[in-house]
């Protein structure tokens, strides 16, 4: 039941977080909000995630992971119920503010809880991949769930807000599961420190060589992933000449391939070491970019509105998700496994902070490239951070092995005493 709880909680927040594009569209239709105003919803989500992660990660272990998840789910259930009851644009701002705050709590607590659940590093990295795979399934499902509540005859009709009753119910279900999940947090209570020391410990943790190299890896990876995910619909529409609706639909191939890649990686990491697997995956991602992007040349000059008429490039390039899929969960798992359990919460906080920053910067850079060099060339820019990740992984492996060896020597010394 523990894994069901983890997966359900992550799926709920995948739907909520990645609904921002749909909600931006709908507030324009329903509340006559201009695009520049609607765009602030992204900031409410991302900035609240980064700020909350930085502030709460250092003492979340003291509050308790189970209790933290329950509070976050309860807050989201109440917020979701309030959205259709208060149908105004300002309420959607509150929604994404609370979504960001709650997700920061959830992600830090869930990532930290894996250290209490997984038996060893292979089990940890495997579970992390499954967890991130279900997040992508949530992203996919969210598109279909929200579209089911939008009126085809009148897109501005407020009936789309009723989707939040369903999401409130899912939050309540996850809250009930959290009450009964088997999670032994006794080790955390025994190692609790004063809050000032917990916070200073998080700051000092960020200067460890292992953490510095890891943060670089996370930042660069999310920069690449978010750049492709955010701008793939624009690429499909502007470069491949798909209609906007079809371009959005076919962007779901990226989410599907990422989800399948993480499910496959969950099995692979039980058998093989993470380092050669990730190196192979990153090299294949680079090769796919070099092979797939030229396929966009010579596409139809007439708008394409059907999947059957879409060019090969629309199917091939999103398969990069298969290659990129194992990287993020694997490096997160590797660094968490290399640290003592008491440091998992502050480390998870750093993961969330730099993931949010990397995602924001990746989207901004790719947007500029679309303007400067055009959509057909913009994604070639991903090759540089992919190469940098390969270098960062080399350093990460060195520091992880050194850290694990140091912990083993400390454990043997303690046992001898």
From TrEMBL:
InterPro entries: MFS, MFS_dom, MFS_trans_sf, MFS_Transporter. Keywords: Membrane, Transmembrane, Transmembrane helix, Transport. It is found in: Endomembrane system. This is Fucose permease. GO terms for cellular component: endomembrane system; membrane. It is a multi-pass membrane protein. Its main location: membrane. The chain crosses the membrane at residues 7-27, 47-65, 72-90, 96-118, 130-151, 163-181, 202-224, 244-265, 277-297, 312-335, 347-366, 378-396. Belongs to the major facilitator superfamily. GO terms for molecular function: transmembrane transporter activity. Residues 2-400 form the Major facilitator superfamily (MFS) profile domain. It comes from the Bacteria. It holds the Pfam family MFS_1.
């Amino acid at each position: 039941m523990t894994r069901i709880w983890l997966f359900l909680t992550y799926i709920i927040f995948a739907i909520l977080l990645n609904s921002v594009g749909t909600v931006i569209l709908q507030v324009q239709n329903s509340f006559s909000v201009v695009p520049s105003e609607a765009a602030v919803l992204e900031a409410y989500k991302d900035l609240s995630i980064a700020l909350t992660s930085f502030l709460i990660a250092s003492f979340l272990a003291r509050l308790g992971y189970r209790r933290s998840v329950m509070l976050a789910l309860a807050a989201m259930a109440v917020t979701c119920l309030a959205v259709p009851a208060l149908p105004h644009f300002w309420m959607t701002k509150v929604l994404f503010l609370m979504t960001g705050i709650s997700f920061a709590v959830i992600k830090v607590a869930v990532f930290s809880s894996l250290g209490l659940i997984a038996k060893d590093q292979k089990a940890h990295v495997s579970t992390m991949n499954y967890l991130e795979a279900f997040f992508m399934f949530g992203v996919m499902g969210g598109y279909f769930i929200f579209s089911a509540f939008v009126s085809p005859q009148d897109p501005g009709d407020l009936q789309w807000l009723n989707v939040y009753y369903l999401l409130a119910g899912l939050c309540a279900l996850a809250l009930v599961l959290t009450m009964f999940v088997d999670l032994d947090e006794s080790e955390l209570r025994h190692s609790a420190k004063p809050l000032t020391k917990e916070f200073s410990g998080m700051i000092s943790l960020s200067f460890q060589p292992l953490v510095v190299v890891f943060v670089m890896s996370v930042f660069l990876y999310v920069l690449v992933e978010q750049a492709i995910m955010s701008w793939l619909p624009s690429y499909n529409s502007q470069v491949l000449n798909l209609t906007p609706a079809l371009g959005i639909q076919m962007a779901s191939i990226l989410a599907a391939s990422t989800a399948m890649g993480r499910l496959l990686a969950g099995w692979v990491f039980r058998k093989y070491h993470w380092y050669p697997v990730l190196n192979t995956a990153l090299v294949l991602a680079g090769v796919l970019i070099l092979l797939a992007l030229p396929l966009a040349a010579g596409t139809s000059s007439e708008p394409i509105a059907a999947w059957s008429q879409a060019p090969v490039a629309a199917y091939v390039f999103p398969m990069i998700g298969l290659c990129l899929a194992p990287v993020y969960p694997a490096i997160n798992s590797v660094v968490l496994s290399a640290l003592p359990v008491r440091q998992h919460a502050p480390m998870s906080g750093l993961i969330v902070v730099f993931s949010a920053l990397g995602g924001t910067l990746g989207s901004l850079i790719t947007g500029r490239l679309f303007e400067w060099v055009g959509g057909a060339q913009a994604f070639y820019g991903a090759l540089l951070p992919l190469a940098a990740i390969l270098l960062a992984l080399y350093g990460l492996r060195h520091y992880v092995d050194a850290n694990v060896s140091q912990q083993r020597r400390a454990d043997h010394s303690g046992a001898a005493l």
